[in-house]
Predict the structure of G-protein coupled receptors family 1 profile domain-containing protein.
Amino acid sequence: MKESNPDIHFDCSPYNCSSEKEIYFNKNMNYTDEDITEMIMMALGSKRKDMFSVVVLITVYVIIFSTGVVGNISTCFVIVKNSYMHTVVNYYLFSLAISDLLILLLVLPVINK
């Protein structure tokens, strides 16, 4: 019978590692805290994003938030102020605008925590 290798080899390419990096797991599961931290960092990446990514994400979120709030409030305002806009379809659009506004106000600010 073939003798097994004491180390089990896993390729970490699906975990955003470069092709040269590989993770070697000890078969006996004798890991130090540093080993576990290194494996987690290789698998998940760092906790923080670089400054360019943060600025781009904040800019995109601000654009989505501001255009959504202004557009939905103006839709509701137009439907309420103009009596000829009081139709069944426009009431439906009004309820959609209110629900979209609530999603923007309640969900978008906490989506990336």
Summary: The CA atoms of residues 37 and 113 lie 22 Å apart. The helical segments are 33-44, 51-81, 88-106.
